[in-house]
Amino acid sequence: MSFDSLTLRSVTAQLNGTVIPGKILSVIQSAPFEFILRIAAHGRLHNLLFSIHPVHARTHLTEAFPKQKKHWHFADFLHKHIGDGEITAIEQVNFDRIIKIRIVPQGEIIDPTPKILMGEFMGKHSNVILMEEDTGKILESMKHIDETMSRYREVLPGLKYVMPPATQTLDLLSTDEETFLSILASDKGPLWRKLLRNFQGLSPLLAKEAVARATDDSPEEVRNVLINMMADIQVGKFQPTVITGDKGGNDVLAVSTIRLQQFQDSYAMEFPNISEALGYFYERRITKESLQAEKAAILQAVKKKREAVQQKHESLNHQLEIAENADDLKLRGDLLIANLYKVKYRQKEISLQNFYDPDNAEITVQLDEKLSPSDNAQRYFKRYKKAKRSKDVLTRLVSKNQKELEFLQRAMEETEEADNLNDLTTMRGGLERKGVIKKKSVRRQKTREEMPLFRRFESSEGFQILVGRNSKENELLLKGESSKNDMWLHAKQIEGSYVIVRNPERRPDIPKRTLLQAATIAANFSKAKHSSFVPVDYTWVKYVNKPRGAKPGFVIYTHEKTLFVSPSDFDKLFRESREVL
Q: Which domains does the chain have, with CATH numbers?
């Protein structure tokens, strides 16, 4: 775990001295799990990265500023709610891997009340959540967590924000020596693991560092080292460092905000600030992992191909061995013809004297008991002729197959030795042209973020509109994606899509213009789309219920009102409301 509580403490200290006060200029999202806040502060531009990657979750300043090739809902939502907003405070929550950023929106935005952006960097449970400061209500999050995914807390728009479950650990600085020593004495396992299990804010890296710095293995000495380390952290005494296994600095092993002493036969690279250290470390770590993943993929494909070629090679060698013994087949046929009177029906084998041999040695001839003696002889002659014809062909095939095996062996060795992605890309291209590896499909499978479960629109007033494509999506939309404060629309007594107008700010009503646009969408995606006018019912989601055991798509709703709209206005709607995905 490279991004631990200590690292976040250093990042928070850097951000407080760099981007406060700062103005958010834009939100750039280039992947499902990360985005960048573009911030203007103290006459400079800064890029603040947030990543909820299950392995590389982190936040820090970065020089990288990727181009946004498409619209992403979360980035658009952030821009609409905190774009041009002022960052007024940044803090770490309880020395945990959680950062809290206070933002006061400015200008013409939906809601000018202060917002909180929470970043939770906890491996596969990482998330970034936008909420209201005064009510703690969640407006949106990068990942939606419902009751089927977590029994402890749900993270959905409209719900109140709940902190991640607290671990049963103690605050190191407030734990007295007697308690500290008794806990370590009663626990089992390596000393660093005891520290990790029992005290807050420690990562495996930090716990091992405390043990490495201690002059002996006594708990008293380790406690003194930890207290000194934590005291340095409290006053911001940082020395960002990346540990590498080579002088070139490419084989990165660890990154920390303090100088590490636990690594032997390694090299330390110091950086002026923690963001530069993190940027350097993760760029090389991710490249290394990508290299290893690509190597594994190529090796797996080449190994599979080699096994198939090897199996074919063994079969060809067996056939060639038979072909090279073609004269032996003719001999057996000749012996059978000369001794037909000795062969009995349904005989499986017979021993005959080889009159071509000076010593008249006996040869055992295998027979097919279903054939007559003369047919058995003809069978040997046919096999002789076939083997004679195939010998030259088989010799060429065996030679060709041997060369292919040698090529595949070299490909595996070169793949193992490759130390950069460019070389592997070149190798993959060559293997694809030779048919060893299948070419990557141009139409790649889209991720859930790129290909949402629902059609998504945005009204001219900035409200997100979700539309189910079928009965399954309708149910998912109603059960999993909407909250009770959202608006539900459906063509009245006509089969069609459920339409949801998202209302994360829990407004008491939805503007009429947005309702008309949503109703037009509902009419267009119904079986009455060719009608002149279509009645569309709308009501709050909290008034829509599906009876237990009812067939898919059947619901009961109350408190509804009805709008009459023309599906033909749908094309005009695109000039006012765009489909975002």
A: 5-141 (2.30.310.10), 177-281 (no CATH), 299-433 (1.10.287), 455-579 (no CATH)
